[in-house]
TrEMBL record:
Catalysed conversion reaction: L-aspartate 4-semialdehyde + pyruvate = (2S,4S)-4-hydroxy-2,3,4,5-tetrahydrodipicolinate + H2O + H(+)
Name of the featured protein: 4-hydroxy-tetrahydrodipicolinate synthase
Gene Ontology cellular component terms for the protein in this record: cytosol
UniProt keyword Amino-acid biosynthesis, yes or no: yes
UniProt cross-references to HAMAP family, sorted A to Z: DapA
BP-aspect Gene Ontology terms: diaminopimelate biosynthetic process; lysine biosynthetic process via diaminopimelate
Family the UniProt entry places it in: Belongs to the DapA family.
Organism (species): Salimicrobium jeotgali
Cellular compartments annotated: Cytoplasm
Active-site positions on this chain: Y134 (proton donor/acceptor), K162 (schiff-base intermediate with substrate)
Keyword Amino-acid biosynthesis on entry: yes
Site (Part of a proton relay during catalysis) location in chain: T45, Y108
Length: 297
């Protein structure tokens, strides 16, 4: 299933008391849609899901669905390392009208491949929504092996994977051995263009909060066969992508948004804001990009 080519793993805006700020959330949704996002992933890791309560996740998803109003698909992160709790949350969030759910590999528990298969298949059986798997071994400390993803793709409503292992060989194998309508997205911003080149559907991005227009231009250039322009744009935006991930996400992207005038507040512990030196480097990079954008108009 294709949810679009450029999806954004959306941050969760907070107010000064670290409660979800719904006015800021509305503004952020509008900003993302205006600047190229074709889908929104809500309450994922970038949305600080480990620090959100189940009630907060349900209400946040309900609100984003209302604001998006069918303009772009809304995918909710409902995964955890507790299968029963994941099933319960998935059912509650399905009821608010999201278009799909994303299930991260169960973190910390380090289940076997068979355990992963049973976890994902049990959650998929509990919902009528399309399911996107999320493989991110750098954070979950368990890798969903290609064979397991290929096996899971046989389940009717498991339709996609966000592949954030950085392993293009694995992604290529998944693409070649799953049904034609099974979509593979990269979760690594810097691999957007390489993933497209091996048949991937696109990217679920963090950097698109900041450089969504440029990422959309790069993807569109590649899709219309202008590989040279796509490669040039890839080289142009790569430094910003690297800086957005220079410190644990989503601290850098939240700082970038705040600096750009899209207020999203700070992060919840155990995440911490950037220090002065880190802020300065990020601000300087944003200034350079904004100056170049103005100069090109």
């Amino acid at each position: 299933m294709n949810f679009g080519q450029l999806l954004t793993a959306m941050v969760t805006p907070f107010d000064d008391q670290e409660d979800i700020d719904y006015n800021r959330t509305r503004n952020l949704v509008e900003h993302l849609i205006l600047h190229g996002s074709e889908g929104l992933v809500v309450a994922g890791t970038t949305g600080e899901s480990p620090t959100l309560t189940a009630e907060e996740k349900v209400e946040l998803c309900r609100f984003v669905v209302e604001v998006a109003d069918g303009r772009v698909p809304v995918i909710a992160g409902t995964g955890s390392n507790n299968t029963k709790a994941t099933v319960e949350l998935t059912k509650r969030i399905e009821a608010v009208g999201v278009d799909g759910i994303m299930l991260v590999a169960p973190y910390y528990s380090k289940p076997s491949q068979e355990g992963l298969y049973r976890h994902f298949s049990q959650v998929a059986a509990a919902t009528s929504l399309p399911v996107m798997l999320y493989n991110i071994p750098g954070r979950s400390v368990v890798n969903i092996e290609p064979d397991t993803i290929i096996r899971l793709a046989e389940i009717k409503n498991i339709v996609s994977v966000k592949e954030a292992s950085g392993d293009l060989d694995a992604a290529t194998r998944i693409i070649s051995q799953t049904p034609q309508d099974f979509s593979v997205y990269t979760g690594e911003d810097s691999l957007t263009l390489p993933m497209l080149s091996v048949g991937g559907a696109g990217v679920i991005s963090v950097s698109s909060h900041v450089i969504g227009d440029e990422m959309k231009d790069m993807i569109d250039s590649y899709k219309r066969g202008d590989v040279k322009t796509a490669a040039t744009l890839h080289g142009y935006i790569l430094p910003m992508m690297k800086l957005i991930f220079a410190q644990p996400s989503p601290s850098p992207v939240k700082e970038a948004l705040n600096y750009m005038g899209v207020s999203v507040g700070s992060v919840r512990l155990p995440m911490i804001p950037l220090d002065d030196a880190e802020c300065s480097a990020l601000h300087n990079m944003i200034d350079i990009y904004q100056q170049k954008k103005v100069a090109s108009i």
